[in-house]
């Protein structure tokens, strides 16, 4: 244990944790408004990453329907990121239309909505695989223009490396969190969303068009998912159409840890899990993927409402 | 000929139906679980280790074919115990927590089996001894188990415990106010499912000949749930109907190649919207219409 | 002096700063029909939830059959002999009428899980017993002929009766009825009074009843407690309560007279 290791772990954890946070916020927004977990969120994450890749790099690989094709244009990374996120937001809206609205119209069991969102996830991921194949894509190293790959500091004769992509992740995530906080607390629509989340019935009595707000929520949620997918993809590559599944599941651990439906909880949960993974001693690094889920169990035992969740009151 | 060609398919349908059934019991008490595939994996590892590890050579020598039932019993006991450990914290709570806790359980299990030596890491275990010459022979394992479980399910709906399960499914709070110990009953329903999944896993390790972490992917979890919900969660026959459809469908759709997985997703969504009571519910309402 | 069945001492419950029930004390004696009245939002149903253990109290004590039941899980309170109905009727809708009444009887089961599954003689005898008791209860509320129907197929009035039968299946000593007359017509309301009195003598019950319909309450109850804004403003025999000034104020909507919190 030394100061460089701690600092390095802290930076790594903060960077990955902030992505977990914005990704998990996508779950939280939908959960707080519908009381349902959108299991297609991991698929939207994947599609967002692939959209950004397509916009920024333009070339498709050797498999799938689009094999060997190219887009006629290349966008700079920031624009591609924006475009990919907006497209993912559109996919989020599609998920709502396909998996949630028909069931809501029938007043069906929430269990079914969960399963239909799993079904839509299956459709999305396999359509993606049909189009681009199962191969691994990676953003080329020059994607961030003239920025260097990493900054290297020397401390106490040890090396501390901060990758450029980590800084980008951190900056984009923080900006996103601030923007979301501003949106939720300062705009009419954000406040209406909160009101709908608090109590859908009262909200519709107050003249809030609940259906429209549900759609907006899915759009924002999808955009957050696509954005985080891109950031993870830029850091670790796009490991096939299924690469969002494990992040999708990890996001569930984040929201339970923070408290289901709590927006600050999702942020705190993301950071705690990101840091928890980063501070895992190197000897146990093979257990990294289990960290989030072990934390989920611990919180269920110790504080089931989550770190920042409120105890729910039974309606009778 | 037909049986030889489709032997694997038939056994696979029965095997998957049993896995679906292991989710049917918690659903009977209104609880959504995605744990089955984890206990299936656990049971499979128990059978694979007992069938291949040198440490169990003496057991294999002494027990001969009786080793298989011993594996089943050990898998049953281990799964039920682990099921208690997973179920109690999650089932004290109402709502979606069991689904989330069971997802977490499967993910942790997958990491653990990749790390441990005894489970063969990423490669897994292979060369598991097979008691039958042909795939179809495994019907001697899965067939009787399916029959027993169908009778078990049908009986359960007519017992004191079964009525408590259903009462919780219908209205957990009212069930509590009517004196039903809801946490206890939910754990009981969940553990029955865990035990069954463990036994199916122990039977499946020789059937598949090899066992690794890919047995317990998230997709497989979803598939198990799909069997029950598409077949009909309120009918004893639901898991069998659902498994028959969803296991056979990829065979029928073989010409579609990669696109057939898209079909699976579409079936899931369409069934949720148009067949909320599953195939069994559809058949029941058709029968009622005919009678009327 | 008769035995005290239910004793409330300074019971309070607030929801995030809002006082739903504040410092309520009263006791219910064995064999009484005790009415709980008050305007909408006075905290009556909250008080029922506190008594039946569904909502935890913020302060105060609740004693049932001489035992402190604070912190006891709702199913344990029910098991001690307290059954209730719900204002908005919460049946096991997807189950048969018969199974709705049979489900609570698990509390008296003496046979094991596996014995039930295998249908061993002890389990069969018990099932026969449960069946007989359930049919008696259904006949009592006039639903014997509909035993096999789905609970969700019943019309409104019959659902109310089924919910009472389900509560009686728990062999309660104290029966909590939350607005049993809501949605019934005048004739049905009149029948209900006789029915509740009949239940009391037949099953040796004590009844705690929330009701809006004043004539019904006045004719039925031995004693009344009046809640307004979560506080107990008056209790006593119907004729005493009827003349109490604070009660008249509360019902006439003169909110200045009622203590606000």
Structure, described:
The complex is a heterotrimer of chains A (316), B (292) and C (261). Chain A is mainly α and 316 residues long. Chain A is 68% helix and 4% strand. Chain A has helices spanning 3-34, 41-57, 77-106, 110-132, 164-186, 188-198, 200-205, 210-236, 243-258, 263-278, 288-302, and strands at residues 150-155, 158-163. In chain A, strands 1-2 form a two-stranded antiparallel sheet. In chain A, strand 1 and strand 2 (158-163) form a beta hairpin. In chain A, helix 1 runs antiparallel to helix 8, helix 2 (41-57) crosses helix 8 (210-236) and helix 5 packs antiparallel against helix 8 (210-236). Chain A starts with a helix and ends in a 14-residue tail after the last helix. By secondary structure, chain B is an all-alpha fold. The mean pLDDT of chain B is 89. Chain C has 2 domains: 1-81 and 173-261, Rossmann fold (3-Layer(aba) Sandwich), CATH 3.40.50; 95-171, no CATH class. Chain C is built from 10 helices and 10 strands. The longest helix of chain C is centred in the middle third of the chain and has 20 residues, at 121-140. Helix content of chain C is 38%, strand content 24%. Chain C is globular and about 60 Å long. The interface between A and B is large, with 46 and 40 residues.
Radius of gyration of chain A, whole Å: 20 Å
Structural class of chain B: mainly alpha
Please state the structural category of chain A.
mainly alpha
Number of strands of chain B: 0
Strand content of chain A: under 5%
Q: Strand percentage of chain B, roughly? A: under 5%
What's the total helix number of chain A?
11
Give the radius of gyration of chain B: 19 Å
User: What kind of oligomer do you see?
Assistant: heterotrimer
Separate helix tally of chain B? 13
Describe the global form of chain A.
globular
Largest sheet of chain A: 2 strands, antiparallel
- Please tally the β strands of chain A and state the result: 2
Outline of chain B: globular
What's the helical proportion of residues of chain B?
over 70%
Regions with little confidence, pLDDT below 50 for 5+ residues of chain B: none
Q: Roughly how much helix do the residues of chain A carry, as a percent range?
A: 55-70%
Distance between the termini of chain B: 43 Å
State the major sheet of chain B. Answer: none
Order of helices and strands of chain A: HHHHEEHHHHHHH
